[in-house]
Design goal:
The chain has helices at about 20-30, 45-55, 65-70, 120-125, 125-130, 145-150, and strands spanning about 1-5, 10, 15, 35, 65, 85-90, 100, 105, 105-110. The two termini are about 20 Å apart. The protein is of the alpha/beta class. The radius of gyration is 17 Å and the shape is elongated. It has one domain (about 1-150).
Length: about 160
């Protein structure tokens, strides 16, 4: 199983980058399951600094959801989504219906303008576990980096 991003969001747009669908198809032809996660909102400012100066509840440290994410996950609308791809969308853990936040409770979500803190990622572990239940085969052996390299036509680690 390969874990990757499904979309790219930035500068007010969100897309499935060119080539993703083709690569997912190649992986599927080699028996590789793909878990593709919707990208996190890019707030495009120093989130930790904003929170430090103005506090986590300050409006200036949040952004409108509609400027951060497409209304619907673009990957869910792909007409040719390969059957080996399992989409995961955690957007509701970063934003409510209208706003994307810098923190959840007393946990910082971002360490910079778009990368998630390790602490916040650990809080999402139960949600990810629910997404993965049933996806991982119990008896199948993990694929080696060489097998993945052969499936994708890319060189593996040295």
């Amino acid at each position: 199983m390969l874990f990757t991003t499904a979309t790219y969001g930035g500068d007010g747009i969100e897309i499935v980058p060119d080539g993703f669908t083709g690569m997912w198809q190649k992986l599927g032809e080699s028996g590789v399951q793909v878990v593709a996660v919707r990208d996190t909102p890019y707030l495009n400012f120093a989130v930790a600094e904003c929170v430090e100066v103005f506090g986590p509840a300050a409006a200036r440290c949040s952004r409108p959801r509609k400027t951060m994410l497409a209304e619907h996950n673009p990957a869910e609308r792909l007409p040719d989504l390969p059957s080996n791809v399992h989409l995961v969308d955690l957007s509701d853990y970063f934003c409510d219906a209208t706003t994307c936040f810098p923190a959840a409770g007393n946990v910082m979500i971002y360490r910079d303008d778009n990368h998630i803190t390790a602490t916040y990622m650990r809080t999402l572990a139960p949600m990810l576990e629910r997404e993965f239940v049933g996806l991982l085969p119990m008896k199948e052996q993990p694929r080696s980096p060489q097998t993945l390299a052969a499936a994708t036509g890319m060189s593996g680690p040295d």
